[in-house]
Design goal:
single chain, alpha+beta, five-stranded antiparallel β-sheet
Length: 736
C-alpha cells in the first residue's frame, strides 16, 4: 500500500472509533483507502477457478457464491455409508452461499444430464441414484433428506448423523444418494462425478424501482439496519446475468438473518457492505444499460477467500468495467463511447508541475491479446479464443507483443474477443497526463470525459478520461490525471467495423489532411490465377501525392447505398499497388483511399464501382447437383420456359433461379440452357454450347430440344449404343 493510502486508512480507522454521526462515512473512507491500494494489483482472478466444477471434499474451504448461470461441482458438507449391508451412500453438498438462488436447473452425472422425478432418477440411473435439493431459503423449512423412496435393496432409513437441525439455511444445496453397484452394472468406472447447472443469486435492479429516479416497478432496496424493510425488499429482487447489477449488490453486501424471527438482525456474510448513499447507483445503472445493449453477461463462482475488491473487479471485468472510487463513493467506470463534457485550454492551467508522456512504455504496449473464457460447450472449462491482434500495431511495433488473461465469469467467445480487443487498445492510450488546473475544475469526477485543447503541448482537441484527482487546500489548485480516449476503439472492439483506430499520439500540428486527388489512384477488377485456381480481386494502382502522409489507408465495400466500409489496411506511403482479394465473384465493389498524416486521417477518395473477377479452379460452367423441381425446363417450337426453383451447384452454393422464358429460338434444335451469374440472365446456346461450357460465368441448367415447326411433335432421339443407356450395362452402374 502506498504511503498516502496508509495514512488515509489509518485516519479512517481512528475516526471510526469515535462515536459520532460520521461513522458510516469513516467506514466508507476506510474501504476506499484499502480499495485504492489495490488499484495497481494484478489482474483479478479466482485462485480456485479450476476447482469450481469439481466435487470437492474441503470442510475448511471457503464459501462459494454463484452469480448468473454456471456449473458447479459443489463442496461436500457431510457423507455417510449406511442402510442394509452398507449399500447406501449419501453426500450432502453445498452449491452456493447467499441464498436463496434462482434455480437448480440441471443435474449431471459424469457430464451427462440426469432427469429427476421428484427425488428419483429417471432412465439409466433409475433405482440407483436419488437426490434432494434446496435453494437456500432463510430458514429452510426442513433439512435435506437422502431422497430414497421405495428402496430397491433392503432398507435405507434416515442418514445416520444427519437430522432435522441440519437445514443448511441460506445455502443452495443438494443431497446425492447412490446404491452400491455390486456387479458394476451402473458404476463400472466408479462413482459418477456429479455437477449442477444453477441460476445464481438474485439482485436489486434500480431500473425496476419506482422510487429510484427514472425507475419503474416494484423492485426495492432497503438498509439492512431496518430489518423489516430489508426483508420486504428482498422479496422483490430479480434474477439477472448483468455484471453491473451483481457489482452493485456486492458493494451493498450480502446480508442474511433468520427470517422466521422478526426481531433478528441482518448480518453481512459476503461483499463490501457499503450504505447505498455511498454508492454511485446512477453509474451502475448506466453501466448495466451498456452491458445489456452489448449482450454482455457474467456467470461463475466467487468465494469468501477472495479479497472483497478483487471479487468486485472480477465481476466488473466481465462487463468491460472497473470499480473506482469518487471521493467516499464507490462507483464504476464502463468501457463505452463518451461525450466530452468540457474543453480545457492552456488558460485553465495553474501553477504547478505538469506531465505529458509522449508514448506508453514499450513493455506496456500490446498489439495482441490471448484470452480464455468459460465454455459450456467444452464442459464448462476455460478455453482460449484465437489471439485478438491488431496487425497495424504489430507493424508499428516491429513484432508481436501479446498479452494474456482469463475472463473467468465470461461464457461467450464474442464477449471475450471484445474485451480482449479493449485490452489491446487501452494499452496504447497515453497516461498519465497530469495537469494542475484552476479551482473551477474541482467539480469534475473520475470517469468524466473532457477535451484537452492545448496544441502547444501536443494535445490538439484530444479527448481524455479523468483517472485521478487531488486538491491543494491552501491554493485550491486541482490536479487532474488523465488518460487519452480514442473514440474509434469502441466500434472496433465491439465488432461493428473492421477499421482499426489510429494509435494515440501527440499531435505536431493542426489542420485537416486533404483527400487524395482523383488523378492519383485508379481501380480495376481482376482475376488472379495460381496453380489452376482463379481468385476474384481488385487492383488499385497509383502513388501518394501528399508528402506529409505517413500511411495510405485502403478500404472497400459492395457498391450500393448504406454498405459499410471493410477490410481497411494501413500501408506505407511508398505503396504504388494494392491487391484486394476475398471478394464475391461478379460483384461490383467500390474502393476508398485515404491518407494519414500526424495521426489525422483524410476524407475518402472513392474509386469504382468495378466488377470483381471470377472465382474457382480454371474450370468450365458450374453443374447443378440438386434442385427442388423435377422438370424446371419445358419448350415449344420457338421458346424455352423455366419455372422458379432452388438448386445447389457443384461448389455447394444454393441459388434461387427465377422463372423466365427464352423466346425467338429455332425449331427442332437442341439447346444448352445456362444461367449467366454475372449478368443474372438465362442463355440458350445451340449444342454443343462450347463457349458457355468453358466459362465459370455460367451454371448449366440442362439440355432442351425445341419442337418441330408448328409445335405438334419433337425430333426423334437416336438410339444409344450398348453400354450407354442402350442394350448393354451402363459403365457407371454399381456392381451388385
Amino acid at each position: 500500500m502506498s504511503k498516502v493510502l496508509r495514512i488515509v486508512a489509518a485516519v479512517a480507522s481512528v475516526v471510526a472509533l469515535i462515536p459520532s454521526p460520521i461513522q458510516p462515512i469513516a467506514a466508507a473512507v476506510a474501504v476506499t483507502a484499502s480499495i485504492g491500494a489495490e488499484l495497481t494489483a494484478k489482474r483479478p482472478s479466482n485462485d480456485r477457478q479450476g476447482l469450481t466444477d469439481q466435487f470437492k471434499i474441503d470442510p475448511n474451504g471457503p464459501l462459494a457464491y454463484i452469480i448468473g448461470r454456471t456449473s458447479t461441482g459443489g463442496t461436500i458438507a457431510y457423507r455417510k455409508v449406511y442402510g442394509t449391508d452398507n449399500h447406501y451412500k449419501t453426500y450432502f453438498a453445498i452449491l452456493s452461499a447467499g441464498g436463496p438462488i434462482d434455480a437448480i436447473e440441471t443435474f449431471s452425472a459424469d457430464s451427462v444430464p440426469v432427469l429427476l422425478s421428484g427425488t428419483s432418477a429417471v432412465g439409466y440411473y433409475n433405482k440407483w441414484l436419488w437426490q434432494d435439493q434446496q435453494l437456500g431459503q432463510t430458514p429452510e423449512p426442513r433439512a435435506l433428506g437422502s431422497g430414497v423412496v421405495s428402496p430397491p435393496f433392503g432398507t435405507a432409513g434416515p442418514v445416520p448423523g444427519w437430522g432435522a437441525a441440519y437445514k443448511l439455511s441460506g445455502y443452495a444445496a443438494a443431497s446425492l444418494t447412490l446404491l452400491f453397484d455390486t456387479k458394476a452394472r451402473r458404476y463400472a468406472s466408479g462413482e459418477p462425478v456429479p455437477s449442477w447447472i444453477v441460476r445464481g443469486v438474485k439482485v436489486y435492479d434500480p431500473r425496476l424501482d419506482s422510487t429510484y429516479p427514472g425507475g419503474s416497478g416494484s423492485c426495492r432496496w432497503a438498509d439492512p439496519r431496518n430489518a423489516a424493510a430489508h426483508a420486504a425488499a428482498r422479496l422483490t429482487w430479480i434474477y439477472s446475468e448483468t455484471p453491473a447489477l451483481h457489482s452493485l449488490k456486492w458493494k451493498l453486501g450480502i446480508w442474511q438473518r433468520d427470517e422466521s424471527n422478526p426481531s433478528a438482525a441482518y448480518r453481512k456474510i459476503l461483499g463490501i457492505g457499503a450504505p447505498i448513499d455511498l454508492i454511485d447507483v446512477a453509474a451502475h445503472v448506466a453501466s448495466a444499460n451498456v452491458q445489456e445493449l452489448n449482450g454482455w453477461k457474467a456467470g461463475g463462482e466467487l468465494n469468501s477467500d477472495m479479497g472483497r475488491w478483487d471479487a468486485c473487479k472480477l465481476i466488473e471485468q466481465a462487463g468491460g468495467a472497473e470499480p473506482i472510487s469518487n471521493g467516499a463513493r464507490l462507483s464504476t467506470l464502463q468501457k463505452a463511447p463518451r461525450v466530452s463534457l468540457a474543453t480545457i485550454t492552456t488558460a485553465d492551467l495553474a501553477n504547478g508541475r505538469l506531465s505529458i508522456p509522449s508514448n506508453r512504455m514499450r513493455r506496456e504496449r500490446l498489439n495482441g491479446f490471448r484470452a480464455q473464457f468459460k465454455s459450456e460447450a467444452h464442459g464448462w472449462q476455460m478455453v482460449p479464443i484465437d489471439i485478438v491482434q491488431v496487425r497495424d500495431y504489430v507493424i508499428a511495433d516491429g513484432g508481436e507483443r501479446t498479452g494474456s488473461g482469463d475472463y473467468q465469469l465470461v461464457q461467450d467467445p464474442d464477449q471475450a474477443a471484445s474485451l480482449a480487443a479493449y485490452e489491446v487498445f487501452d494499452s496504447r492510450e497515453l497516461l498519465p497526463i497530469t495537469l494542475p488546473l484552476k479551482p473551477k475544475w474541482m467539480g469534475y469526477r473520475i470517469g468524466d470525459c473532457v477535451t484537452l485543447a492545448m496544441p502547444e503541448l501536443g494535445l490538439a482537441n484530444q479527448p481524455v478520461i479523468i483517472r485521478g484527482r487531488s486538491q491543494d487546500p491552501a491554493s485550491s489548485i486541482v490536479t487532474l490525471t488523465f488518460a487519452t480516449e480514442t473514440a474509434g476503439k469502441h466500434a472496433a472492439a465491439l465488432g461493428q467495423t473492421g477499421v482499426v483506430p489510429p494509435v494515440p499520439a501527440l499531435s505536431t500540428g493542426t489542420g485537416d489532411v486533404p483527400a487524395p486527388a482523383a488523378s492519383e489512384w485508379t481501380l480495376e477488377g481482376a482475376t488472379f490465377t495460381d496453380n489452376g485456381v482463379s481468385i476474384p480481386a481488385m487492383v488499385v494502382t497509383g502513388a501518394v501525392g501528399n508528402t506529409n502522409a505517413d500511411a495510405v489507408v485502403f478500404s472497400y465495400r459492395p457498391a450500393g447505398v448504406g454498405a459499410e466500409w471493410a477490410g481497411a489496411s494501413f500501408d506505407a506511403p511508398e505503396t504504388i499497388r494494392k491487391e484486394i482479394t476475398g471478394l464475391t465473384p461478379g460483384t461490383q465493389y467500390e474502393v476508398s483511399v485515404q491518407y494519414r498524416a500526424r495521426g489525422v486521417i483524410s476524407d475518402r477518395l472513392v474509386l469504382g464501382p468495378v466488377f470483381a473477377g471470377a472465382f474457382g479452379a480454371a474450370r468450365g460452367a458450374y453443374l447443378l447437383r440438386t434442385y427442388n423441381v423435377d422438370y424446371p425446363v419445358s419448350s415449344t417450337d420457338t421458346a424455352i420456359s423455366l419455372v422458379a426453383f432452388t438448386g445447389v451447384i457443384d461448389d455447394g452454393r444454393a441459388i434461387a433461379f427465377p422463372a423466365d422464358t427464352l423466346a425467338g429460338l429455332g425449331s427442332a434444335t437442341q439447346y444448352g440452357v445456362f444461367r449467366d451469374l454475372s449478368a443474372a440472365i438465362y442463355v440458350a446456346a445451340a449444342a454443343p454450347a462450347a463457349a458457355q461450357f468453358a466459362s465459370s460465368q455460367y451454371v448449366f441448367i440442362g439440355w432442351s430440344t425445341t419442337a418441330n415447326a408448328g409445335g405438334t411433335s419433337y425430333p426423334s432421339t437416336p438410339t444409344p449404343p450398348g453400354g450407354w443407356g442402350g442394350g448393354g450395362r451402363n459403365p457407371y452402374e454399381q456392381e451388385p
